[in-house]
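Pair request: fold both.
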Amino acid sequence: MGFETLAWGYGLIEAPRVDERERLHFSDVPNGGVYRRNPDGKLETVLAKRRGVGGMMFNEGGGIVMTGRGLILFDETTGQSRNLFVEWEGRPLMGLNDLTTNDAGSVYTGSLGFNPLSDAAPVPGSLFRIDPPGRATKLWDGILVTNGLGLSPDRKLLYHADSPTGAVWVYDVMADGGVKDRRIFAKMPEGHPDGMAVDVEGGIWVAAVRAGEVVHFGNDGVVRKRIKVPATMVTSLTFGGRDMRNLYIVTADNSEDASRKGTIFRTRADVPGLKVPKARF
């Protein structure tokens, strides 16, 4: 597969999302900032200082829902943000990482119990669902390092990357939005699972951090394809384009030119990606 190089010079890029105008939004986790690449290649700063944004989604009424220390709704037109979920049981959250949304506009996201970019031993976090206008429900405990999340096309399954386990896990989604029966969906051939995206056939595409590839699993958990990327630290990915076959891949390095650091690549997928619903806060 051929790659276009769209942008570079960042630290660890995360949280890629493409809006209706084909503008790619992304974050730089260690250096801070949320950015946007326009179809003509112009780069813009959306939010300058926020660090640790591991997940984003556009909001139905405008703005962007994003993680960090907590979950916020950022309004670019005013420059203001509103806290949606910043504490649990009276204690501030240490951090939230990736997220996805369901058809009701609720957010599924995972908490971090330690800094995953440090050498500290993992402290397990939890899986939460935050329903509009901001009611949080804890769904599961014991996730070592929460990463990519995605719902199946029929919304009956929730996929969840737990990086140190080397596996993508799956839950059954109940009618009330809760989950049950967590189990392994697929093991990574190499590296650790980071961000993910779901396709229209129910397959999942997973960024293999430290392995330099994106792994495409079918809806049965069997590897369909391993896409080698010109980077070792492949951190996340998202679909875009009118036919949802543009695959945007983001990294924390560049093996072709180390000076470029975190890079955004684009290629074409053979299966369209599944559109993710907007949040409704």
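--- second member of the pair ---
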Amino acid sequence: MGIRKNPCQSVAAWFFDGEAVGRVKGLYYDGALSFRADLPVPGRRPGESLVAVTLAGICATDIEIARGYMVFRGVPGHEFVGRVAESDRAETVGRRVVGEINCPCGDCDLCRGGRGNHCPTRTILGIAGRDGAFAEYLVLPDENLRRVPDGMGDREAVFTEPLAAACRAVEHAAARPGERVAVLGDGRLGLLAAMAFAASGVPATVIGRSVRKLALARERGIRAMTLEEAGKGFGADVVVEATGCRDGLAHALSLTRPQGRIVMKTTIAGRHEVNLAPLVVDEIALIGSRCGPFDRALALLASGAVDLRGLVSGEFPIERGLEAMEEARAPGALKVLLACGR
């Protein structure tokens, strides 16, 4: 036995008979979140690429992971942009990429039916069974990676995953011209969803609590109001619930007209406590919504249809990752970024 370099294209680390000798920096959750400088370079299998993470974004799900959501253990984080450091596909090494986060088995009925995002044995980057983006390196299947257009900056590309989730909400809403659409929640996802609706040709009203965030919506030509201003009589045909709060669904129900639709985006570690009788009495459809189309998100970013000005609250080096998480939890915070690159 001895030290050898991986025979594939690589700029990442030296290996001892396949085991990574190099150590990298990152955040690690094991009942508590900590910064570590001794994480192994993640090993990849055939058909997977090792990606050197440049920037990662902190979202509400990451905050909930650190509160015990999904009973996850490992490196959290799933929003990122980086460069391929090692791959069986030599032509991709050095390429800037973003990545879809669900890694399905490819063989079950759901996978064969084109619903791999719901594969029962899938791993999910930084959420379930797979170390994520809050470290210097991550591993994803080659088929999950999407090339970042040359003219797009890293601070735009890092929004691909949350914007894709916003686009999925638009798909699930299936709003028709003339219908009244509300996005409940003026945070990171809510503002992206409102812009995605505008790009689809069906405008939405943002309903929230932050004067500053509602002003950001208005600067983009999006109608915005407080929850108090909307009141119970708002009567939306479609409400996208993106509050990140356990009382969000109750507020969404109060804003939705009979036979309307609620698209649910919030995921929290705790339980929702809400009277579901209005779903039956008013015949309201409740639709869960999760990950979305990366190609659509990249196209919106490339076209300039989504205005990201003012959406970044701060940027921290990975060594200050715990501080970054605290910043992301603070009232009024929008997107907080981690600079993970060497």
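Observation on the second member. Residues 28 and 75 are 5 Å apart (CA to CA).
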